Automatic annotation (TrEMBL):
Protein family per UniProt: Belongs to the 'GDXG' lipolytic enzyme family.
An annotated Gene Ontology molecular function: hydrolase activity
Protein origin, superkingdom: Eukaryota
Keyword Hydrolase carried by entry: yes
Keywords associated with the record: Hydrolase
Domain Alpha/beta hydrolase fold-3: 83-302
Record protein name field: Alpha/Beta hydrolase fold protein
Species for this entry: Artemisia annua (Sweet wormwood)
PANTHER family reported in the protein's UniProt record: ARYLACETAMIDE DEACETYLASE, CARBOXYLESTERASE
Pfam families, alphabetized: Abhydrolase_3 (PF07859)
Amino acid sequence: MNPGFHSKYMSTSDEFPIHFHGWLRIHKDGTCERFIGNNIAPPGTDSLTGVQSKDVVISLKTGVFVRLYVPKTLVPNKKLPTLIYYHGGGYVTESAASSTYQPTLNLITKESNVIIVSVNYRLAPEYLIPIAYEDSWEAIKWVATHARGHGPDSWLNDHADLENMFFVGDSVGANIAHNMAIRAGLNSDGIINLKGVILLHPYFGGKDPIGAEAGKNKQFKAFSDNLWMFANPLGIGLDDPLYNPAMDTHISVFGCAKILLCVGENDKLKDRGMNYKKVMEKSGWKGKVEVLESKGEGHVFFFSNPSCENARILRNRICTFINPIRSKA
């Protein structure tokens, strides 16, 4: 961004060299001030669902932690599908402990009868990309240590079915989930058995505009691209394979055979989401992309209004994607 630049989404000034409106701003002394994701929801037992949650530090060196969710009723010796969840927030805001996520993840845990491992990866600009991806992979490896029941956490040892694992994320978290699935496909150790990936309103991009990005969403594309470059200033630009899946030469080794792609009809990232489906289908990957479009809804609407009908429909689709046999019963 040039000095003095101003748009609906972002601006620059002498006092605030970088300002992503409503998200964060950088003060002239370098201090980062965040405006969202600051409200913390403590773990514990949820009064609505009975779901239990707790925070577990997975690396003393980095301080990265996960928030674990388990259903109210746990049957001894019964293993449950396990979801590794990556939160959104543009790589720069939000956390696994944010009040944004707690209500929805409680509901998914209860309704789909799963265990969720929500990853608190480190944020830019303090920790630039690829740190978010590296932390996310470390969380996968930590979960995998529980495969034979000898890991550091009893909930996962006793109840996590690591033969039935899913990666899930919203917005930037969906981008991370996608890239983790490729990494899983490239990993010859077979540390996990990835059954599916769920992408909720994914954040992808690229140098060349697609769809409405060349017209009514032109300013939003500039915001999205600048956010990527802010979090990843040392990368190779807007066609970095982490940001633009079409540029990834390894995409065909995606580590599972099914993807649930959820988009919002009014989401400015919808075109990128639908383009992702085309990219995957043309890549040589042998799997299937299922699509759920929420009519009349914007970006990640299901967090701000988890009780609305479209949020309920989305969570039900997640449930049937994870539990196809149960859903047909």
